[in-house]
Amino acid sequence: MFVGAVFFPLLGAIIAGFFGRWIGDKASQAVTVLCMVLAAACGVAAFYHVAFGHAPQTLEILTFVDVGDFEVSWALRYDTLSAVMVGMVTFISTLIHIYSVGYMSHDPSRPRFFAYLSLFTFMMLMLVTADNLVQLFFGWEGVGLASYLLIGFWYEKESACAAAMKAFIVNRVGDLFFMLGLALTFWTFGSVEFGTIFAAVEQHRDATFAGLPAYEVICVLLFLGACGKSAQLGLHVWLPDAMEGPTPVSALIHAATMVTAGVFLVARMSPVFEYAPTALAIVTVVGASTALFAATIGCVQNDIKRVIAYSTCSQLGYMFFALGVGAYQGAIFHLFTHAFFKALLFLGAGSVIHAMSDEQDIRRMGGIWKKIPVTYTVFWIGSLALAGVPFFAGYYSKDFMIEAAFAAHSGVGMYAWACGMAAAFLTAFYSWRLIILTFHGEARADHHTMEHVHESPWVMLAPLLVLAAGAIGAGAVFAPYFIGHDWEHFWNGAIVNAPHNHIMHAVHEVPEWVPLAPTVVGLSGIALAYIMYMFAPSIPGKLAATFHGIYLFLLNKWYFDELYDAIFVRPARALARVLWQKVDAGVIDGVPNGAASLAVEVAEGAVRIQTGRVANYAFTMIAGLVVFVSLLVFGAAR
User: Fold this and answer.
1) Neighbours of 75 (CB within 10 A)
2) Coil, strand or helix: which one is 196?
3) Strands, DSSP E only, in 27-117?
4) Per-residue DSSP letter, 455
């Protein structure tokens, strides 16, 4: 059960990847889907056994690294935190695999796609079941590789290749900090095994590095690594470009795998983070700022997938500020519920794109809700969950995080609460802006496209209905366990709250108006979207013209790409050009090439005196002898 949940996806990836050309497209699909179904069955069973049966365990597979005294095992750590992630990843990935059978039905490279998709799932499962930081880093790099392969899957498109490179390079920046944090962890604790590290937290609390508290430095470095994977402010620029991959890829990245890795890392290292208050404050501020920043951009984007992508970025910000105030359980709960409704929204967007003959611009949609009623319904359900409307999944998890920020009773906590409230309003606004412009109003697509609008096949709709059920019920069903009064029994030590951290108790004691506030601002955002886009559709255009500078600022994503281009890309290219033309061509190539040219010239000169005539040789010898004797006589005379 525990091994199958992790390794069935790898088996599917190997069969489809290495033998897909021989067994054919349909067989490749069938094998990978079957392996994922088996993995999901094992993953859900493992979740029930570990989380509800309170039976955590670690299975050692083999010795991963053995160098001198440094030995690292490849082991599967199954505590409640890992079990939650394994159950969620396998279940969501299975639905995405099934959906992909219909969505990718006309693609000529289906075996390669399904192999990459299953490999992505396996790498994420390796990450969340890691028993040490080295194994976690293996999965960490693995999801980076798989995301590169999937974002650039349609490599014939230059934009897809550029987006894949961008994701890979930006993540390498974050990974550098992760590696430094890993090295400093080993330097501090003498081990990379989680069990050893967590048992020695009290022992090394006073450790320092370069005059700074070692725990603070470790946690800041690990968080900066998490910022790359989870697209936090500054290292977020790869996330919207990742939409160049097929829509199922976007759903897998945003709902179940790569972007959730950073949140998982901080939660896994909670025993250390609990004693790094400065690092937690940084996590809170960056997370809160990301939640608001991404929400502002989502309000003006016109690509249906990019709107949802910035929504993911914003929701990850919520998770991080919940981690920052010490409500790790709330962050993981939102990660869990978010997987259902974000996968639903992305796959729903894929259904719309499928219906609209690959059109993704919402300005060229409208008037299609009656033609694709199932997609329209599930899109509503996903948006209601995302906006935190009672009593959908997001209502329980998202509101809990906002309440936790308020209950922290600190400056950074109140900052997070204010950003969370503003982002909740904007989230509801851009979600219904998306619904209205996509499905309602007059048809803005050309006549030919509108004639061919059709509902997706059931192989795509069935996963949407399952995800819709999760978006409705996952919050109410699991809230009592994840964040209810019995949360300590459920988590069973997988997430650690230090004795000084009372946030999980304080959140249940906030004033009565605090839990109501997110719902009020969310409904207000929905109402504003209806007014602006349904009842008075001329308002957005007038606002964009009146506040043209602000509109362009948001439309161009706060000009982060342009800023990075000016600060990093252009100087790097200029330096590379100098190194190429002056150093490489001038020195590295110039010295040996110059020596070779000199040798050629000397040889050409020597050739001229080789005439083959004895008289010439005798004359040269006599002339040389005369010069030699003259020098000898001149030297003796002095």
Assistant:
1) 21
2) helix
3) 57-67, 70-78
4) P
Q: Quote helix, strand, coil % in the chain, to nearest 5.
A: 75, 5, 20
The Cα diameter of the chain in Å comes to 117
User: How many H helices and E strands in the chain?
Assistant: 29, 4
Task: Kindly indicate the confidence band of residue 396, based on its pLDDT and cuts at 50, 70 and 90.
Answer: very high
Q: How far apart are CA 522 and CA 42, in angstroms?
A: 38
Could you check whether the bond before residue 7 is cis, i.e. omega within 30 degrees of 0?
no
Distance between CA atoms of residues 27 and 44, nearest Å: 25
How confident is residue 215, by pLDDT bands cut at 50, 70 and 90? very high
Q: How many CB atoms are closer than 10 A to CB 234?
A: 18
User: In sequence order, what are the residues at sequence separation of 6 or more whose Cβ sits closer than 8 angstroms to the Cβ of residue 556?
Assistant: 562
Give the mean pLDDT of 124-137: 95
d(CA 483, CA 504): 8
Cα 74 to Cα 59: distance, rounded to the nearest angstrom: 9
DSSP three-state, residue 399: helix
The predicted model scores a pTM of 0.91
Give 15-63 pLDDT, tens digit per residue: 999 998 899 999 999 999 999 999 999 999 999 999 999 999 999 988 8
Q: Which two tokens stand for residue 331?
A: 């962050």
Sorted by sequence, the CB contacts under 8 Å of residue 33 that are 6+ apart come out as 12, 94, 97, 98, 101, 114
Residue type, 486: D
- What string of H, E and C letters represents the secondary structure of 330-377? HHHHHHHHHHHHHHHHHHHHHHHHHHCCCCCEHHHCCCCCCCCHHHHH
| CA–CA separation, 33 and 9 (whole Å) | 9
Encode pLDDT of 544-587 as tens digits. 999 999 999 999 999 999 999 999 989 999 998 988 888 887 77
Classified as helix, coil or strand, 64 is strand
Q: What angle do CA 394, 306, 321 make, to 5 degrees?
A: 45
Of 386, 241, 402, residue with least CA distance to 321: 402
Structure-derived torsion over alpha carbons of residues 514, 494, 469, 457, reported in degrees to the nearest 10: 130
Backbone angles phi, psi at 6, to 5 degrees: -90, -40
Handedness of CA 225, 151, 315, 83 (dihedral sign): negative
| Placement of tokens 């946030």 in the chain | 503
pLDDT of residue 638: 67
Q: Give the burial class of 18: count Cβ atoms within 10 A of its Cβ; 0-12 exposed, 13-18 middle, 19 or more buried.
A: exposed
AA identity, residue 206: D
Handedness of CA 470, 471, 475, 481 (dihedral sign): positive
- With a CB cutoff of 8 Å and minimum separation 6, the contacts of 632 are none
The mean of the pLDDT values for the chain is 92
Q: Residue 386 is inside which H or E element, if any? A: helix 373-386
Q: Which tens digit of pLDDT belongs to each residue from 242-255?
A: 889 999 999 999 88
Measured CA distances, 362 to 188, 249, 305, 436, 572 (Å): 52, 20, 10, 9, 36
In terms of Cα–Cα distance, which of 433, 447, 434, 241 is closest to 352?
Answer: 434
198, burial (CB in 10 Å: exposed 0-12, middle 13-18, buried 19+): middle
408-418, pLDDT tens digit by residue?
989 999 999 99
The residue among 605 and 365 whose pLDDT is bigger is 365
